[in-house]
Each structure stands twice: as structure tokens, then as C-alpha cells.
Amino acid sequence: MSTETNTSLRGPERDKPNSSARLAVFLSCAVCPGAGHFVQRRWVLGALYLAAFVICLVMMILAVVVPLMMNLHIALDLAEKGSSGIFRTISLVKVLTWFGLTVLVYFAALVDIIAYARRQARRRLDARRQALEDPNICNYGAHGGTE
Where are the domains of the chain? Predict the structure, then answer.
């Protein structure tokens, strides 16, 4: 009787995401939403999250930059020609709305990445457990039976 233990018999204690799942979560956090979906080979969903994030971000920036540029133009005209115009105000409601939508898309993509990684880890764990319980698969070494 050997004193070696076969670690494949014990199986994993919990489902852990693999390195590509960690990379997907990192890319969605650090780069932009949708990047992690591309790592997971979910192209359409990644493109949708990326497009939604970019559109919301651009609209939020435009809500600030456009009134500032108009005010700069009015101020330069006032200094140059002496004609005054009506200064534009930055709509706080627009900025906060687009900011909220940007954050919502960011976190929705992040939650989707993490949930998908956990589902994949759970499937791998279930497949390993099923392989261990299947009597047709022998994991007991060269003897071919139980000891």
C-alpha cells in the first residue's frame, strides 16, 4: 500500500477563477468596460459595453466643453470688439446625468464580467466533480481499482 496521496481525488475545495478571468476583470476595471468581454471572447457584448461607455463619456465631456468654448468665444469677442453676448451656463443636470450613466455602464460591465467568470469556474468545478464520481474514469493510479 503506497503512502502517496492522489490530489486529483480530493478535488478543488472551491471554485477559483483562472488567470484569464482575472485578466478580464482587471481589463474591465483598469482599461474600459468591454475590454474584459473581449478576453472572454464575448465580442458582441464587449462591443456594446464599450460603445455605451464611450458614448456616455463623450456626452458628459461635451456637456462641459461646449458651454466653456462658447463662453471663451463670447469673452474673446467682448475683449476684441466690445460686443457682449450672453454667457452660457454649464448644465449640472446634464453633466450629472451623463456621469451617472457612465458609472452605471462601468459597473454593469464589471458585474457581468465577474458573474461570467464565476459561472465558468463553477462549470469547471462541476465537471471535475462529475469526472471524479464517474465510475468509468479511473483516477486511482496503475492498479485500476480501489485499494
Answer: 18-127
